[in-house]
Amino acid sequence: MYCQTIAGKVQTVPLPKYVDSKQLKKHPDWHCFSDAPLKRKAPEDYLPYARIARFESTKTLSKFWHYHVRLGRDKLAENRIVFYPDDHKGLQFEEVSSVLENTEGDQIARLEVAFNFGRHTGVDSRFIRRHFISGKCSHDSANTWGRRGGTKYIRSYFKREIGAHRLELQLNWRFVRQHKIDDIFDIRKLPGLLPEHHILFAEIDEQKVIDHLRPVWSATKTLNFLRQVQSLEGDLLEQLDLLRHAAHLKNTRRLLKRLPINQRITEALKEWAAQWPTAPLRRRRKP
User: Fold this and answer.
1) Of 22-36, 68-82, 177-191, 260-274, which gets the smallest average pLDDT?
2) Strand locations in the chain, DSSP E?
3) Where does residue 44 fall: left (phi above 0), alpha (psi -120 to 50 degrees), or beta otherwise?
């Protein structure tokens, strides 16, 4: 059981104060195929920017959007750049840096990290719901955790374009600020940050449950309770909720048995993060 690829999609949202649009449009690695007014999907929708320039890579399937001509709110960034990397290659430092060489004051506002699992891994929606836990995140729906506007939001779905199941962690503004992920050079913090705390695959260790309940419950009551826990084995969060409320066990993580897949995820994350330097290698342009 292992992670087929890591970071099949990592979306960064820099908020540069200055963007040299003319230089970007001349860049040999990027083609601007549209620079047009940004339209509302519905009349009541808030429109933060007046225009959007769309770029596509001349080498891969990566794209990025440049939102500009700010409208309204003073706290809104003057520019907003959203990267949509090639699903097969993932976000590449060379691609991102080629864009940010033409910006000033960029700061990550949101970061999405995706783990892709091929069919041969046996990882699908059922496996993830049965074994996945991410901090204190609860279910938002059958295959999502957290809240869209919260610290983090997590999705589990099958990605047809790459023929793999994807577990996608959307790390929002509060998360990246809390952990001081300010720019792309802080991406190397992720291997020490995400495993165990924000992405963990595990299952209930029944022997540990028995050991904790033996001093206070009879053998019969303990076995009956274990059957209740087993009946919920398709949803790890429901099992942990039962242990907290019915058995009054506070630190339920002590009752988990880590799965081997965690080691592969950590290794893959380290391998991917190592591709990103820890300090700027470029000379920023001045407005």
Assistant:
1) 68-82
2) 5-6, 11-14, 18-19, 30-37, 49-57, 63-70, 80-84, 103-104, 108-118, 132-133, 139-141, 144-146, 152-159, 164-171, 200-204, 256-258
3) alpha
* pLDDT the model gives residue 195: 93
User: Tell me: the pLDDT tens digits for 21-39?
Assistant: 999 999 999 999 999 999 9
**Would you kindly state where each structural domain of the chain is located, as residue ranges?**
5-200+260-273, 202-258
| Closest to 118 in 3D by CA, of 159, 147, 87 | 159
Considering all CA atoms of the chain, what is the largest pairwise distance in Å, rounded to the nearest integer? Answer: 75
249's tokens:
């066990």
Write down the pLDDT at residue 11: 55
DSSP H helical segments within 101-253, as ranges?
A: 125-131, 173-178, 190-193, 206-213, 219-231, 236-245
What are the residues whose beta carbons fall under 8 Å from the beta carbon of 215, sequence distance 6 or more? none
3-class DSSP state for residue 231? helix
Q: How far is CA 256 from the centre of its chain?
A: 23
Contact predicate 260/1, CB 8 Å: yes
- Model confidence pLDDT, tens digit, residues 173-189: 999 999 999 888 998 99
Collapsing DSSP to helix, strand or coil, 226 comes out as helix
173's tokens: 């503004």
The angle that helices 236-245 and 219-231 make with each other, rounded to 10 degrees, is 150
| Confidence tier at 1 by pLDDT (50, 70, 90) | very low
